[in-house]
């Protein structure tokens, strides 16, 4: 998940510069890099979401009392947000993949 923020920030800077200069980036090579980066990042975000969900499940269903309710609810919210982040990243990736052949 540590790669998601720099990648998204870099894309936001590039998009902002493109809008400021009034020159849309429509080169297939650059868009291919964005698509591949989004796919890799989406896969890594899915792995992080799955590992977070498995840790939450392990803490909740373990025999001992390993997790206070307040902490477990925070882990559950973290897992839900990780899956939401994966869904949005995958939507962005699929949109960019759909946009690539139109160039």
UniProtKB/TrEMBL annotation:
Domain of life: Eukaryota
Matches recorded under InterPro entries: CASP_dom (IPR006702), CASPL-5 (IPR045009)
Lineage: Eukaryota, Viridiplantae, Streptophyta, Embryophyta, Tracheophyta
Membrane topology: Multi-pass membrane protein
Family: Belongs to the Casparian strip membrane proteins (CASP) family.
Name of this protein: CASP-like protein
Sequence ranges assigned to domain Casparian strip membrane protein in this UniProt record: 1-88
Residue stretches spanning the membrane: 30-56, 77-100
One Gene Ontology cellular component annotation held by this UniProt entry: plasma membrane
Coarse class of the protein's main subcellular location: membrane
Record has GTP-binding as a keyword: no
Quaternary structure, from the entry: Homodimer and heterodimers.
Biological source species: Salix koriyanagi
């Amino acid at each position: 998940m540590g790669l998601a923020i720099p990648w998204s920030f870099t894309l936001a800077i590039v998009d902002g510069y493109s809008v400021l200069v009034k020159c849309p980036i429509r080169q297939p090579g650059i868009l291919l890099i964005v698509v591949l980066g989004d796919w890799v990042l989406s896969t890594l975000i899915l792995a992080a979401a799955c590992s977070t969900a498995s840790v939450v499940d392990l803490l909740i269903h373990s025999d001992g009392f390993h997790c206070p309710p307040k902490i477990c609810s925070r882990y559950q919210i973290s897992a839900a947000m990780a899956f939401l982040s994966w869904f949005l990243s995958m939507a962005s990736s699929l949109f960019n993949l759909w946009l690539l052949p139109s160039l």
